[in-house]
From TrEMBL:
Family according to the record: Belongs to the peptidase M29 family.
Needed co-factor(s): Co(2+); Zn(2+); Mg(2+)
Listed name of the protein: Aminopeptidase
Alphabetical UniProt keywords: Aminopeptidase, Hydrolase, Metal-binding, Metalloprotease, Protease
Origin superkingdom: Bacteria
Organism of derivation: Microvirga terrae
InterPro entries: M29_Exopeptidase, M29_N-terminal, Peptidase_M29
GO molecular function: aminopeptidase activity
Length: 421
């Protein structure tokens, strides 16, 4: 029996919090409606959470819940034993089926908990080719997700490999228990009424987006150690944060947890240098101390202390991979930041720090973007790519100014904290 559950009270408490997380995922994350199908993806170690989510989905009236499990050990076997030509293939039939489900109204839920260093020792060229093949096959489904055609959400589950990375000095059972507690806390399920807590939190994030939309800044200027970056904002950009209404009319929270407000940069109006403030865990490779330089919106120089080969392969995915698709602001005092933990997981670390994302932009972040063609979105500055990868550039040493349409700089964040109300 796991050490953390030898006390029956502890086991009961964990079961209660896990059930609450399943309920929050369905009611807050998805806003699942009666009659909707649900497609879930999850690692094998997340089966307990999958069952809680499945139960709450059916209680909410789901017509069918289908879960697709992944296994990291099997992924490693591919890289160590697969034929070279196999790394240019992906299960197109699977992604076509997922896209068909979304076109027919299904909701999407992803449970993440990957080993941050799973592929660290594997051939970067094979990793890049496999990721590119997957991205191409997944693009029809991804377009519907990025465009919020459907209601969708991402939640996390504590897995042994991930827990060992976050808590390397603890026995595995202790590490897993600590990581679960951190997930429960960040997801607000350890509060007396998690649903009400999310309603309050969403209201605060939406108040911040209203303020930023009223400001209608032309650009953001980030300054800090190794960073002097001006991010021009897309024409007609719109800030989002917290819950959002998908095109199917369902209100959802795409990330559980979330602390960010975000919008779309102009793909051609990013200038300067920027350094990452937290490691980026990307498909099993840990990329640390990223430094890049932008000219006319495009990354023209890049380096990293670890994972540089993988970073360069990512940047070569397509033309849009060297341009930005998102910029997000997160105060240093966010609960995830104040936990003091480095999660080595983008879902959490991006909500501890202001960040930017390489690649695909969200049409949701352009006014009336949901009705625009790809050409119209591009004319507003929206980027297109096979990838969307967030990495962290904020800290308590980073200041942010909002640059008005007439070129004036207004203090927006100082030392990582909001200045404006």
């Amino acid at each position: 029996m796991n050490e953390q559950f030898r006390n029956p009270t502890d086991a009961a408490s964990h079961a209660k919090l896990l059930d609450r997380l399943g309920e929050v995922a369905v009611r807050v994350g998805l806003g699942l409606k009666p009659g909707q199908e649900l497609v879930v993806t999850a690692p094998l170690d997340a089966v307990a959470l999958v069952r809680r989510i499945t139960e709450h989905a059916y209680k909410a009236g789901a017509s069918l819940v289908t879960t697709i499990f992944s296994d990291e050990e099997s992924a490693l076997l591919r890289f160590r034993n697969g034929r070279d030509e196999s790394f240019d293939t992906a299960p197109a039939w699977l992604y076509e089926g997922m896209a068909a489900a979304y076109r027919n109204g299904a909701a999407r839920l992803a449970i993440v908990g990957e080993d941050p260093s799973l592929l660290a020792k594997e051939d970067p060229e094979k990793v890049s080719r496999a990721n590119r093949a997957r991205s191409k096959a997944y693009m029809p489904a991804l377009n519907m997700i990025a465009g919020f055609d459907i209601n969708w959400t991402i939640v996390s589950a504590a897995t042994p490999a991930w827990a060992r990375t976050v808590f390397p000095d603890d026995p595995e059972e202790v590490a897993v228990a600590k990581l679960w507690q951190a997930i429960f806390s960040a997801s607000r399920v350890d509060t007396p009424d998690p649903i009400a807590a999310w309603e309050t939190h969403n209201a605060a994030l939406q108040a911040r987006t209203r303020t930023l939309n009223e400001k209608n800044y032309a650009a953001l200027h980030f300054r800090g150690p190794g960073t002097d970056l001006r991010v021009g904002l897309a024409d007609g950009h719109e800030w989002n944060g917290g819950s959002t209404r998908a095109k199917n009319g369902v209100v959802c929270n795409a990330n559980i947890p979330t602390e960010e407000v975000f919008t779309t940069p102009h793909k051609d109006r990013v200038e300067g240098v920027v350094s990452s403030t937290k490691p980026l865990s990307y498909n099993g490779t840990l990329i640390q101390d990223i430094q890049v330089r932008f000219e006319a919106g495009r990354i023209v120089e890049s380096k990293a202390r670890t994972g540089e080969a993988v970073l360069n392969k990512v940047l070569d995915t397509d033309e849009g991979a060297r341009r930005l698709g998102e910029v997000a602001l997160v105060p240093y005092s966010s609960p995830i930041s104040q936990s003091g933990l480095l999660f080595f997981n983008t879902l959490f670390d991006e909500n501890a720090s202001s960040h930017i994302a390489l690649g695909q932009a969200y049409s949701k972040c352009i006014r009336n973007g949901g009705t625009m063609s790809e050409e119209e979105l591009a004319s507003h500055g929206s980027n297109k790519s096979l990838i969307h990868i967030d990495w962290m550039i904020g800290s308590d040493q980073v200041d942010v100014d909002g640059v008005t349409q007439d070129g004036r700089a207004e203090p927006l964040m100082r030392g990582g904290e909001w200045v404006t109300s």
